[in-house]
Amino acid sequence: MVSIKSKREIELMRKAGEINALAHKAIAEAIKPGVSTLELDLIAERVITSNGATPSFKGYQGYKHTICASINEVVIHGIPNRKHILKKGDIIAIDIGTCYKGYHGDSAMTHSVGEINEDKAKLLEVTERSLYEGLKYAKAGNHLSDISHAIEKFVKQYGYGIVQEFTGHGIGQSLHEEPSIPNYGKAGEGVILKEGMTLAIEPMINLGTAKVRILKDGWTVVTIDKKPSAHFEHTVVITKEGYEILTKLEEDDV
Fold it and tell me: Is the pTM of this model over 0.90?
């Protein structure tokens, strides 16, 4: 069952998303060679708590940190660590969940650390663009799988691997709600999108094979060929006109 959010609920999610975006902005400004992923984690936590929210990920199924910080071949769920130091040429995906008055916002961005090679730069460009290609179909009356299909169709032309074991999801009072939202599949299937649905769309795209594995820590997901991966995500609400991104700042519209 996919929940429909009221105007009040959407407003609370918009505030959660704004704080989420502030945390992303602070981290983006701090990313440089020599910085540890634990430092980035502490920055995000300070921003979130100082704005009256709490980190959605901290305590979730035993997770101990505010962000997921996934470097190079780490696809998702990279655990912040003082020993994980950024180097020039790395890419790092930062995933942040924020809870404001019981409602969540969830988004991810992948950053370059200094100058990166052409392969990594293209991977970041295509992965981010695939998110927006999918969102073109995020409108009332369309099928949920129209989003999934659009992401897959766009990515396939570049020969990249589309992670299948992990998906986007519904979001609201729970960090993960129905439905699951794959980044692949046929169009015209499944849930019909309705105004007021809130969804976290998140393509996870690998430079090489789509195959991944989970490390012994039970969290960290890596590509099996050790080639880099990128991850972009936004929380959106379906509107009469199409969709609105909730995990961004108003200034981003200017």
Answer: yes
Structure confidence by residue, pLDDT tens digits, 42-83:
999 999 999 999 999 999 999 999 999 999 999 999 999 999
- How many CB atoms sit inside 10 A of residue 44's CB? 26
Model confidence over 119-143: pLDDT tens digits? Answer: 999 999 999 999 999 999 999 999 9
Peptide bond into 80 cis (omega under 30): no
Alpha carbons within 13 angstroms on the beta-carbon side of residue 131 total 26
Q: Which of 33, 41, 54 is nearest to 105 (CA)?
A: 54
DSSP 191: P
- Per-residue pLDDT at 251 exceeds 70: no
The Cβ of residue 157 has, within 10 Å, a number of other Cβ atoms equal to 8
Query: Other C-beta atoms within 10 Å of 215: how many?
Result: 13
Q: Where are the chain's structural domains?
A: 7-253
Q: Tokens 């940190």 identify what position?
A: 65
How many Cβ atoms are within 10 Å of 158's Cβ, its own excluded?
Answer: 15
Q: Residue 253 is which amino acid?
A: D
Please name the CATH architecture into which domain 7-253 falls: Alpha-Beta Complex (3.90)
Record the tokens describing residue 173, joined without a space.
């009072």
Measured CA to CA, the distance from residue 84 to residue 99 in angstroms comes to 27
